[in-house]
Amino acid sequence: MNMLIMRHGIAEQPRGSDFTRKLTEKGVEGIQRSISRLKDLQIQPTRIFTSPMTRAQETAMLVMGYANQVQSVEVLEELLPSGAPEEVVSKLNQLRENDICLLVSHQPFVSIFVEYLTTTRIFLDTADIACVSLGEIAHYHGEIECFIHE
User: Residue ranges of the domains in the chain?
Assistant: First the structure.
């Protein structure tokens, strides 16, 4: 199984609820560059999961426009910035071996989750994607195959 762990694009400055911050034009452009790299690598998600926060959902919808096999984006509360890797793993156990799953989330969760799966500590900036190959979705069972830095 392959898992793509992506941080949302650049969002507008906080002016109220952090939950409803939208992507900026620069944020959309960064996501489009990351999508272009996925195309170059011929990686296309078959399932997309996102945090319920607006900027993550907007990011996921942009990627869905590229991913021909994806009909909808699935929202997981567990992908909030304070999410726990163990809870996400338990939610994803129903995935098939040939799925290419994209998770769109936030810092610090995205970096913590990559380390949880692979033992590799990396920092994902906005619109970055860590491509992880997994024998099974479990603690320390993955390996980073590629890293897309916007």
Answer: 2-8+18-148
Contacts of 9 (CB under 8 A, 6+ apart): 23, 24, 26, 27, 28, 30, 31, 55, 58, 59, 62, 126, 127
> Domain 2-8+18-148 belongs to what topology?
Rossmann fold (3.40.50)
Backbone Cα Rg of the chain: 14
- pLDDT tens digit sequence for 83-139: 999 999 998 988 888 889 999 999 999 999 999 999 999 999 999 999 999 988 888
Q: Please indicate, yes or no, whether the overall pTM of this predicted structure exceeds 0.90.
A: yes
Start-end of H helices in 5-144: 25-40, 54-66, 85-92, 109-118
What is the DSSP secondary structure assignment for residue 42, as one 8-state letter? T
